[in-house]
Structure formats: structure tokens, C-alpha cells
Design a protein that fits this description.
five-stranded antiparallel beta sheet, elongated, 444 residues, alpha+beta
């Protein structure tokens, strides 16, 4: 028993759970190949999301071996060097999760709870409340924890705990995927061909023509570093007829990469197509997709923008909804750029999402641009010296690039924006980038 917690497998001579030293568990931790490695975007994004949704000040992805805990991600803590991202396992709450063999560990008031009040990390780390879920190997071994920390005592809500459980599964799935890909390095060429095939399957072979409308799209995968395998991305777009004179266009971005991201991408695209004829409300359709993702326990969340529209005598009338996605952009005939869409919840994490329909109209020579965050969060090539780095290519830069295409048709507009993105960081794409443009032709 440690701090009033009883562990089924007993204790080691040092008083910590015996499960910490289980050889099979330690082998599973080593097999992740994540110990003593630096921060990575996939884990940073999931931990940041946990901190934002719960309102906690800190969030961690932690791996635990027999003697130490290692922070693969530590949001809210300034720990850049590897030696600052680890410590004795005795000083980590994570050993509770290992000893509990897969059960969550949630404390509302750490200083008052008999299980934790005498723990050595409470004072130095200013822990008021702690909530963690296990990171599990495919065989069920506890690799570590996905947790959030609040400075003050608080009651963790059911919404907080559901979110943490979902994100912990996503972190575990990311680890499983990396192990699977590492085991397949000898077949890298075959894997690359498979990734290419899967990615192509996520996109329509050609955009269907729509009477009285110009349409164009592009997809550019993230650049691959020399020491990385080719992975299928999670960006997708589609354009299709729904019912009557109504059409739909969707563009989305699944968190992470790999086979699981591809599975979620395929499910999202075909769910939207299957249900699009039943409702004219983009917000309702995205809500249905969220329900489907939760019901199927989708291992990744996604952001998406979906619009329905119909031709009108004066151009085009439509409605649009954003699900955790950047706003769409409208380039008016006179060159003005306008943002379009109300912020909404991302999909695949919580039951009660908040989504809004926004109406819009396009007149002759107006253009609507949908895009993924690869177009508005373009980062420098890794390893570029700080003094030689171009600044982040963000939303203002994207709006300026779109304004510079004033008067161009949809196809040339997409091509020109792609060229601007490519030149900004000398051909390096830090993330997958999808663009989809709809334009009402100018009156001759």
C-alpha cells in the first residue's frame, strides 16, 4: 500500500508498486522508442488540447520505466532540455496508474486526499488537483500517463474526464502506430506505395463540374525528412451533388498521420456523402459526423468545414459551418478579402458540440476558398538556422496571397497560392495542405 492505495501485484522493496518492474511492461515501454526523445507535434497537440478543454494549467504525456518518469510532452512547464523532462519515478504520480494496472487516477484535492497528501511532488510542483488516464500498449501494459494538473483544488467534471480518456486513447493509438511503422521499415518502399494509394483514395479523382461555377482544388503532402517514413496524411476534400439544385463541399483535417488517420478520413468523407441528402444544414451534418465518430470510437479527432450551396440568378447562395477549422475566405470581385464562418467544436472528442450555420452569397467574380491549416501555419524547414528562418506563414499572409490573385479564375488562384506557400519556405511543406476554391465566373 502506498499513500492509502492498495495494488494487486504488491510492492517492491522500495515501497513502490511491483508492477513498475514487470519485465514485459518495461519491454513495452522500451518498444515505443520514445524515451529520451524531444517534443513532437502529434503529442504536443493532444496535450495542448487537454489543457485548453479542461482549463487546467498543465498537461503531460509521460512514459514510466522502472526508475524514472519521462515527459514526452509537458504543456505549461518550461522544460526544453531532456534532463529537465525526467525525474525519479517516486516523485511522479504516474506510478499510481502503473500500480492500478489501467485504471484512471483522479484527485480533486491533492493536499487533502490521504492517497496523495504526503507525496513528495505536491509542494515542489504546486499540485492542487490531478487527473490522469493510462497510456496502454497493444497488450494492455501501462506505458505511462496522459494527465492534467491544476494549481488549485477543483472538481473534475464528467466532461473533463471523458475528454481525457478520449485523448489518452489517441496518444496510445499514436504510439501503437509508430511501433507498427517502425517494424515495417524494411518494407519502406511498399509502405510508401501504400501511403500514396491510401492518400489518393481520400481525394476525389476529379472535381465534378457544376454548371455556372468554376471549381479547383489541390493537395500537397507534408515534406518528408530523410529519417522519416512516408505516412499517409489526414487532409481531405470533396465536392458533390446533394439534392435538387443543392451541392456540398467539405474539407477536413484529421489529427496526425498514418493508417488510423486514413481510416478516420475515409469514414468522415463517406459519412458526409451518405447523410448530405438528408439535411441542408452544414452544422447538423457535422453534428451527425461527430456522433458517428464517437459511436465507432474513432482514434483521431478532426477539424472540418462544410458548405452547402445552390446557383442563383445573381451567383451563388450558401451556408457554411466550421468544426474546429480555420475560417473560409471570400475574395470579392473588387479584391476585398472577408473571413467566413463562426468558430465551432472539433469533431470526435465530446458529445455536445457547438456548431453554427452562417449564410453567405457569392456574386459574379467572387471566390470562396476553403483550406487546411497547412496553408495558414506554414513553418520553416527543420534545422534552418534561426537567423535564416522566414516567419510563420499565417492567416494574414494567406489573406494577402489570396488578395494578390484578384481577377484570376479558380484554377489559377489555387495554383498561385500553392506557389506562394512553396516559395515561402523554399519548397518545404511543414504540414499537408489542401485547398478548394469555388468561383462564380465574371460577367463577360
Amino acid at each position: 500500500m502506498v499513500g492509502e492505495v492498495q495494488f494487486r501485484t504488491g510492492l517492491r522493496p522500495d515501497g513502490l508498486p511491483a508492477a513498475l518492474s514487470d519485465p514485459e511492461r518495461l519491454a513495452a515501454v522500451a518498444a515505443t522508442a520514445l524515451l529520451d526523445t524531444g517534443p513532437e507535434e502529434a503529442f504536443e497537440d493532444l496535450a495542448s488540447l487537454a489543457a485548453r478543454i479542461t482549463g487546467a494549467g498543465r498537461a503531460f504525456v509521460t512514459l514510466v520505466d522502472a526508475d524514472r518518469s519521462f515527459w514526452k510532452s509537458c504543456i505549461g512547464v518550461n522544460a526544453q532540455a531532456l534532463e529537465d523532462r525526467q525525474g525519479p519515478v517516486r516523485e511522479s504520480f504516474c506510478y499510481f496508474l502503473v500500480g492500478l494496472e489501467g485504471a484512471p487516477f483522479v484527485i480533486d484535492d491533492v493536499a487533502a486526499d490521504p492517497r496523495t497528501r504526503d507525496h513528495p511532488s505536491v509542494g515542489p510542483m504546486q499540485i492542487g488537483a490531478w487527473a490522469g488516464y493510462p497510456l496502454l500498449s497493444p497488450d494492455g501494459h501501462v506505458l505511462g500517463s496522459f494527465c492534467v494538473i491544476d494549481d488549485a483544488p477543483r472538481v473534475w467534471s464528467p466532461h473533463d474526464l471523458t475528454t481525457l480518456a478520449t485523448l489518452a486513447r489517441s496518444v496510445s493509438a499514436e504510439m501503437h502506430l509508430r511501433q507498427s511503422l517502425t517494424a515495417a521499415r524494411a518494407a519502406q518502399r511498399v509502405s510508401a506505395d501504400l501511403a500514396h494509394t491510401l492518400q489518393q483514395g481520400m481525394l476525389p479523382p476529379a472535381l465534378r463540374p457544376i454548371p455556372g461555377l468554376e471549381v479547383a482544388a489541390s493537395y500537397v503532402p507534408a515534406s518528408i525528412s530523410a529519417n522519416k517514413d512516408v505516412e499517409v496524411g489526414g487532409d481531405f476534400y470533396d465536392l458533390f451533388h446533394t439534392r435538387g439544385l443543392q451541392y456540398g463541399a467539405v474539407l477536413g483535417d484529421v489529427c496526425g498521420k498514418g493508417v488510423q488517420a486514413a481510416q478516420v478520413t475515409a469514414m468522415a468523407r463517406y459519412t458526409i456523402r451518405a447523410d448530405a441528402g438528408d439535411t441542408g444544414s452544414p452544422a447538423e451534418l457535422l453534428d451527425r459526423l461527430n456522433t458517428a465518430m464517437l459511436a465507432q470510437r474513432a482514434p483521431r479527432f478532426l477539424t472540418a468545414v462544410y458548405t452547402t450551396f445552390r446557383p442563383t440568378p445573381g451567383g451563388l447562395a450558401g451556408r457554411i459551418s466550421l468544426a474546429g477549422h480555420p475560417p473560409a475566405l471570400i475574395r470579392r470581385a473588387d479584391g476585398r478579402i472577408q473571413q467566413l464562418g463562426a468558430p465551432g467544436s472539433l469533431l470526435g472528442v465530446i458529445n455536445d458540440v457547438h456548431l453554427t450555420d452562417v449564410r453567405y452569397r457569392l456574386a459574379p467574380a467572387d471566390l470562396l476558398l476553403l483550406y487546411t491549416d497547412g496553408a495558414c501555419e506554414a513553418r520553416p524547414r527543420p534545422g534552418t538556422p534561426v537567423g535564416q528562418q522566414q516567419p510563420l506563414f499565417g492567416e494574414p499572409e494567406l489573406a494577402a496571397a489570396l488578395a494578390a490573385t484578384h481577377g484570376l479564375d479558380a484554377a489559377v488562384t489555387v495554383k498561385e497560392i500553392g506557389a506562394v506557400l512553396a516559395s515561402h519556405h523554399d519548397g518545404w511543406a511543414s504540414d499537408d495542405t489542401a485547398l478548394l476554391a469555388l468561383r462564380v465566373p465574371a460577367i463577360a
